[in-house]
Amino acid sequence: MTIVVGFALFTVGACSKPLPEPESVDAQLYALRCNGCHPAYQPSLMTAAMWGATIDRMVQRQLPAAGTRLGVREREMIEAYLARHARGSVRAAEPDTLGLEGAGP
Ligand code: HEC
């Protein structure tokens, strides 16, 4: 089961388009620190709140398991970058993320 889930996630990440603002330090830090175990996922995949929870999980479980860690400042930069382009953020308002807009209450 784990293998199946892992493969599905990999497939999602592998066919993605380039990351937003690729020239920025934040984007490069994200690509560097979050690309080691799986592809760096598109920020527009999740909301800012979901990214916060996901980073928590990576920092508390996955990074220690691999014997590495994320600096406080690194985390701030990566989280801000993901939030900036997250689903529901102004700058992520691309056609593939607008579908959910009418779904809320
Ligand atoms: C040491 C390896 C490792 C690193 C480095 C790592 N991850 Fe992960 N990540 C995993 C593993 C293993 C999974 C699948 C199991 C899980 O979700 O906990 C995963 C799953 C994910 C998922 C899939 C969605 C989900 O909720 O499960 C996202 C998104 C993600 N990671 C984001 C990040 C971000 C952001 C960073 C950088 C801060 C990062 N990862 C760094 C190991 C890593």
Describe this entry's structure for a reader.
- The chain has helices spanning 2-14, 25-33, 48-65, 72-84, 95-98.
- By secondary structure, the protein is mainly alpha-helical.
- The protein has a domain at 44-93.
- α2 (25-33) crosses α4 and α3 (48-65) packs antiparallel against α4.
- Heme C (HEC) is lined by residues 9, 33-34, 36-38, 41, 54-55, 57-58, 62-63, 66, 70, 78.
Q: Helices and strands in order, then pairings?
A:
Layout: H1 2-14, H2 25-33, H3 48-65, H4 72-84, H5 95-98
Helix pairs in contact: 2-4, 3-4
Residues 9, 33-34, 36-38, 41, 54-55, 57-58, 62-63, 66, 70, 78 line the site of heme C.
Q: Keyphrases for this structure?
A:
5 helices; binds heme C; 105 residues; mainly alpha; single chain; globular
Number of helices: 5
How many beta-strand runs?
0
Can you give the mean pLDDT? Answer: 83
Largest sheet: none
Strand content: under 5%
- Alpha-carbon distance between the termini? 35 Å
What is the radius of gyration computed over CA atoms, rounded to a whole number of angstroms?
14 Å
Low-confidence stretches: none
- In helices, the fraction of residues equals 40-55%
Structural class: mainly alpha
Summarize the structure.
The protein has five helices and no strands. With 105 residues, it is an all-alpha fold.
